[in-house]
Amino acid sequence: MLTISLFMSASTALAFRFDTDALKSMGDKLKQLKPVSEKDEIALGKGIAANLTGAAPLVNDAALQRYVNQIGMWLAMHTDRPNLPWRFGVLDDMMVNAFATPGGYVFITRGLLMQCRDEAELAGILAHEISHVTARHALETMRKGAVAGLAGDVLGEYAKSKGHEGYSKLVNAGTEIYTRGLDKEDEFAADRVGAVIAARAGYDPYGLPSVLQTVASINPQSDAVALMFKTHPNTAERVEKVLVAMDGRLDKYSEQPKLQNRFAQVMQAHVAAYKPAKR
Amino acid sequence: MSRSGHSLIWLTMLCGLQTAPALAAERGTLRQDTVLMSAPYRDATTAGDLKQNTTVTIQERRGAWLRVRSDAKDAKDGWVRLHLVRIGEGAEKKTATGESLGMLWSVGQTGRSGAQGVVATTGIRGFDAEALRTAKPNPQAVQSMDGFSANSDSATAHARSVGLKAQQVEFLPNPTE
């Protein structure tokens, strides 16, 4: 709860002020919450995905969208939740970021895609996001009531009523996570698992630390990274941590393909035909 | 298959290789004083050292390592760990409000340029937390994603067509635990 409050902007803090008694009572309610069914998880994720695509449209390039879906699905097949209705999308936004909602909606911004050197780097990003889904990080963050002191309650109410109003509240509470970020340990864990999923899928698993290193080189004052840096642990620290975890364990997979050529062909075709989506 | 058929395949492959997009040389800056290694291994022999803020050209990437070369006349060449190099050269430049990052892929370019390549003149501003909070939901866009989705058969074919081979790999322990 305290770590989340660190992410809050002043205006948010005003809107969601709560006292310790309320926190304690919410904690008690939490213990009674049942795990969310997969069906509800997917419905919730779909709602959050609609909010994300409301903030930034999908890139108007069917070939690019299909390409990212093929890679994403291949990666997801190497997890313990291969049968979720996985959907991948490129958002037409120059901001550098990626998102995953419960149930398997994964987004990368065009701004982050443009930072990738090869398919192994793109795969590393998608695998990181896929890991958030398979580990139910966003869902658990909501269930623990760590968002605005609201979601835990809403999840419980929704489970009882399944009403439309409950659903909207739940989706909006869930969307809050994407403005404040997950626990940083969830991010470090998704980096470790993401590298493993990429290796399992046959990619050079160093694609993830490699693209993170590029992102770590972007000036932190830049608008393009404002939201990502606000919602994630320090990128240079992420690179160091994931490299330490990979050391001596994933080195032998570093000769697996990076697929620079296929990626370059897709990107060149995309850039040549690019027309900004309508907002 | 006929001998000429084989030759044609080889010719096509060779042409493919020659026209394959090459990465433009990337530039980097050392984050700290760094010892260069002669090979991408911790126990390799050392190959000199470079001071913090030295500008280097990135020659090669292998696993957690980058092969870099300094610009100086007595150019030093060796391997450093990935996280010790910041992409781009010189002091970090502050990007003005509203200005977007450099475009790394542009029309006619043979590959990816250095990290801070051509700066797009029309900064498409990224959405911020407030924009996300107040966004009007777009369920039609989410619905349209079904049309681009892959299934396990298509994804497997897409992976195999470029030689990706599935591996059994254990999860990594958390080193801090």
Key structural traits:
heterodimer; A: 279 residues; 15 helices; B: 177 residues; alpha+beta; SH3 type barrels; 5-stranded antiparallel beta sheet; disordered N terminus
Structural description of this entry:
The complex is a heterodimer of chains A (279) and B (177). By secondary structure, chain A is mainly alpha-helical. Chain A has 15 helices and three strands. Chain A has one domain. In chain A, helix 7 crosses helix 11, helix 7 packs across helix 12 and helix 12 packs antiparallel against helix 14. The two termini of chain A are 35 Å apart. Chain B is of the alpha+beta class. Chain B has a domain of 94 residues: SH3 type barrels. Chains A and B meet through helix 4, helix 5, strand 1, helix 10 and helix 11 of A and strand 7, helix 2, helix 3 and helix 4 of B.
Q: What is the beta-strand fraction of chain A? A: 5-15%
Order of strands, widest sheet of chain A: 1-3-2
Biggest β-sheet of chain A, characterized? 3 strands, mixed
What name goes with the CATH superfamily of the domain at 21-91 and 99-121 in chain B?
A: SH3 Domains
Oligomerization category of the chains in this entry: heterodimer
- Cross-sheet strand order for the largest sheet of chain B: 6-5-4-1-7
The chain pair forming the largest interface, with residue counts per chain, is: A-B, 104 and 80 residues
Can you write the helix and strand succession of chain A as a string?
HHHHHEEEHHHHHHHHHH
CATH top level of the domain at 21-91 and 99-121 in chain B?
A: Mainly Beta
